[in-house]
Amino acid sequence: MRFLHTADWHVGKELNGYDLTADHQVAFEQIKSLAQTEHVDAIVVAGDLYDRRVPREAAVATVNQELKELNLELEYPVLAVSGNHDSAIRLGTGSDWYQATNFYLHTELAQAFEPVVVGDTQWFLLPYFELQAVRNYFHDDTIQSLPVAMEKNRGGNASEI
Fold it and tell me: Helix and strand tally (H, E) in the chain?
């Protein structure tokens, strides 16, 4: 399997009042070109699609158009997770019907334990999560750190949960 791993798009970012939209568009064109040149089987977006939890309307329109182009027009499976700059709730809207087009956008911790299968490869998409989400998921308020949380499922114990 060949996949293109991207992350930290931060659509909508400005630096000292300078709008980075044009720079982002160049980067997106490079992503498309690389995916086509390298004949990838899937495109991964590992969080931070937006630069803030409540992105501007223009940023939302940009991300929507780019994901539509990659997934619906170019027909790449897209595997994405929410990052710490994204609003998991906002990104997760519509995720039930995304899968019909091979667009997998995971925004909840519970989704990480079920594989997404693309070709002969299983993907476990782990979105950004806060410590309380782990405590809630495992019903264990004694979990005090993210390393301890990650150990909770070590060894394939997801079926016990």
Answer: 6, 8
Residues 6+ apart with CB under 8 A from 32: 69, 70, 74
Which residues share a beta bridge with 103? 78
* 3-class secondary-structure state, position 94: coil
| In the chain, domain spans | 3-129, 130-161
pLDDT at position 154: 59
Under 8 Å between Cβ of 36 and 76: no
Distance CA 149, CA 135 (A): 8
If pLDDT is split at 50, 70 and 90, which confidence band does 155 have? very low
Instruction: Kindly list the distances between the CA atom of residue 6 and the CA atoms of 28, 142, 143, 147, in Å, as whole numbers in the listed order.
Output: 10, 35, 31, 24
Q: What is the pTM of this model?
A: 0.80
Element (H, E) at 137: helix 131-138
**Sequence-ordered strand ranges (E) for the chain:** 3-6, 14-15, 18-19, 42-46, 78-81, 103-106, 116-118, 121-123
CATH fold of the domain at 3-129: Purple Acid Phosphatase; chain A, domain 2 (3.60.21)
Amino acid found at 123: W
